[in-house]
């Protein structure tokens, strides 16, 4: 048996035929990679065949039986194949062959050949297919005999740390890993992104036809009369987001949720009285180092976004010492002072001692006892579910979030914009601490960069200059930049300006952003003045404070601005701090729903203008006709 890479969630099913939810009859896997020979080998491996297929120039589907179910493999040309540059054509082929969509993207990557260019191309394919693609992706590294390059490490992070080393991996284990990806996504398909369907189709239709009626637009966006624009259309948030914490004691309970224990966090899903449950089992945190505990809790929070609302603390009274109690106290402190309000002690054995009593007191006497002889799933323990339900109600539906210094798991989603030549790519390189980034000016499409900055994961989308583009392109790229920040939305828009008088291009770009994103974008905007010298130079502050146009712009953006030396990283912490303070003050983000609402307002306003123009034209014609008759 191979050892799965340490960040992979080990699988739980006992056979390949049980790995899918009961209602699923077929597993659809799209295989992408940078070496065709290895893609072919992995495809044969999954299908249980041994056939040689010539490198295809388009997507190729193979379907085989898997017990009483089926597995469908979609082979794709490798990333070096020229046709893979045509993302639209590839996506259309892939969507047609997997309709209504694949369950898993299996990324078969050889470390030696995997370059930054491969990463960008692969990300472009996944991001254009769906904003949920990375949630359905698993990286399969084809050799373990070399160090993984930065580009591959970044790809693994994007795929939520799901990765395996293929060599010496048996077929059943790989099938189980694919099955777990399916379970984590509740059996859902990856459906073609809304930015090629709705409401993007609404946007494009509006641009192409200026006479589009407002009610037709609403229908195209998936709205009905009298219906509010819904919140995120991503995977629904579970009513119960439960984290199991403790030593080996919780394995007695968790082994009935998972078929094997693991030192890493696992996640499963369930339902109780029509309400969804997400259950995350941590590793043995009691025996881990402080840094290991911090890392583990960050992983757990990713699985139960926006945060857990139930912490079950598993205790065996016979060996629960004061030292273990203090360790539990430290773990809970990562969530702040209110963590005990969301906690319940669960006994796995008989008995009680003073240390246990103290823990129960901290948890406001919330406790539950389970038998380690009784095989029970969490949602079938009615008494436990009732207790957790009461705790969730008492906390008014709130949830726990990691303290700021520990919360590197939540990405800071930024959109950088400005006129062409303003220095957006240089600013992006300075912020994420990377050089040689793909410049947005070379593609006229949004480019997404990611990296860890000051202990915080930052996702930065660079928006191309739009003022000179056709309105259809403006709408497409604007919607795409917001979609790339799903599901949380854009935390901040960053307007990049050199320390110089505003140009006509600057003003045109600002006007385009205002018209497209609506006036609310100002509430989310910070101005980033870029220099290549000391940002504290008095001349810089004097220019900014005395230039009337720039002062008017700063006032429009709530006086939020930072001066950044793009050649010196020392000012980056100041920028991140300013952004976090801005986000804390507002406690919301700019989502696709806000963008759609801005679009609807724009269409409404334009419709009113057209109606007023029509009435004015009619009156003018009437007056003209009356004048003619009088003569």
UniProtKB/TrEMBL annotation:
Q: Taking every annotated instance into account, which residue ranges of this chain make up the domain AIG1-type G?
A: 409-604
Report which superkingdom the organism of origin falls in. Answer: Eukaryota
InterPro entries, per this entry? G_AIG1, GIMA/IAN/Toc, P-loop_NTPase
Drop me one GO molecular function for this one: GTP binding
Q: Among its keywords, does the record have Ribonucleoprotein? A: no
Q: Does the keyword Metal-binding apply?
A: no
Alphabetical list of Gene3D superfamilies matching this protein: P-loop containing nucleotide triphosphate hydrolases (3.40.50.300)
Database matches in Pfam families: AIG1
Q: Which UniProt keywords apply?
A: GTP-binding, Nucleotide-binding
Similarity comment: Belongs to the TRAFAC class TrmE-Era-EngA-EngB-Septin-like GTPase superfamily. AIG1/Toc34/Toc159-like paraseptin GTPase family. IAN subfamily.
- PANTHER family in alphabetical order: GTPASE IMAP FAMILY MEMBER 2-LIKE-RELATED, GTPASE, IMAP FAMILY MEMBER-RELATED
Instruction: Give the protein's recorded name.
Output: GTPase IMAP family member 8-like
């Amino acid at each position: 048996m191979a050892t799965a890479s340490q960040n992979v969630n080990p699988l739980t099913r006992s056979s390949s035929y049980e790995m899918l939810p009961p209602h699923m009859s077929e597993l659809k896997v799209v295989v992408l990679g940078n070496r065709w020979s290895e893609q072919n080998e992995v495809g044969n491996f999954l299908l249980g065949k041994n056939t040689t297929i010539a490198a295809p120039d388009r997507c190729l589907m193979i379907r085989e039986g898997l017990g009483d179910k089926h597995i469908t493999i979609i082979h794709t040309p490798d990333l070096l194949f020229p046709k893979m540059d045509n993302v639209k054509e590839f996506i259309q082929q892939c969507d047609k062959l997997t309709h209504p969509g694949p369950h898993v993207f299996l990324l078969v990557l050889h470390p030696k050949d995997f370059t930054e260019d491969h990463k960008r191309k692969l990300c472009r394919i996944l991001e254009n297919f769906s904003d949920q693609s990375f949630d359905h992706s698993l990286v399969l590294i084809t050799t373990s005999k070399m160090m993984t390059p930065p580009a591959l490490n970044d790809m693994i992070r994007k795929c939520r740390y799901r990765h395996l080393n293929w060599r010496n991996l048996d077929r059943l284990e790989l099938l189980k890993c694919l099955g777990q990806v399916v379970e984590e996504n509740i059996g859902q398909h990856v459906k073609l992104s809304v930015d090629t369907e709705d409401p993007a189709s609404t946007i494009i239709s509006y641009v192409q036809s200026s006479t589009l009626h407002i009610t037709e637009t609403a229908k195209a966006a998936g709205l009905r009369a009298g219906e509010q624009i819904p919140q995120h259309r991503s995977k629904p948030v579970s009513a119960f987001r439960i984290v199991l914490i403790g030593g080996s004691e919780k394995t007695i309970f968790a082994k009935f949720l998972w078929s094997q224990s693991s030192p890493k966090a696992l996640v499963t899903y369930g339902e109780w009285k029509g309400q969804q449950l997400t259950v995350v089992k941590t590793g043995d945190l009691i025996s881990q180092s402080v840094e290991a505990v911090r890392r583990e809790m960050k992983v757990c929070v990713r699985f139960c976004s926006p945060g857990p609302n139930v912490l079950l603390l598993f205790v065996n009274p016979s060996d629960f010492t004061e030292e273990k109690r203090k360790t539990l106290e430290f773990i809970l402190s990562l969530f702040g002072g209110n963590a005990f309000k969301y906690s319940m002690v669960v006994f796995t054995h008989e008995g009680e001692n003073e240390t246990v009593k103290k823990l129960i007191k901290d948890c406001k006497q919330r406790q539950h006892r389970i038998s380690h002889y009784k095989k029970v799933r969490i949602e079938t323990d009615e008494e436990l579910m009732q207790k957790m339900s009461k705790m969730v109600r008492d906390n008014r539906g709130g949830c726990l979030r990691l303290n700021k210094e520990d919360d590197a798991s939540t990405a800071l989603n930024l959109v950088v914009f400005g006129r062409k030549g303003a220095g957006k790519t240089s600013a992006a390189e300075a912020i994420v601490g990377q050089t040689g980034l793909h410049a947005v000016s070379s593609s006229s499409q949004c480019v997404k960069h990611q990296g860890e900055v000051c202990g915080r994961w930052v996702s930065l989308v660079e928006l191309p200059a739009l003022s000179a583009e056709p309105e259809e392109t403006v709408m497409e790229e604007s919607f795409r930049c917001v979609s790339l920040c799903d599901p949380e939305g854009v935390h901040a828009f960053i307007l990049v300006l050199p320390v110089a008088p505003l140009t006509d291009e600057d003003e045109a770009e600002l006007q385009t952003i205002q018209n497209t994103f609506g006036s609310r974008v100002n509430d989310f905007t910070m101005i980033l003045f870029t220099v290549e010298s000391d940002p504290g130079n008095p001349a810089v502050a004097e220019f900014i404070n005395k230039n009337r146009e720039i002062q008017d712009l700063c006032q429009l953006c709530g006086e939020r601005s930072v001066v950044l030396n793009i050649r010196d990283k020392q000012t980056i912490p100041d920028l991140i701090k300013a952004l976090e303070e801005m986000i804390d003050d507002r406690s919301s983000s700019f989502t696709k729903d806000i963008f759609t609402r801005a679009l609807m307002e724009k269409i409404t306003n334009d419709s009113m203008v057209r109606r007023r123009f029509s009435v004015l034209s009619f009156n003018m014609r009437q007056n003209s006709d009356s004048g003619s008759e009088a003569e």
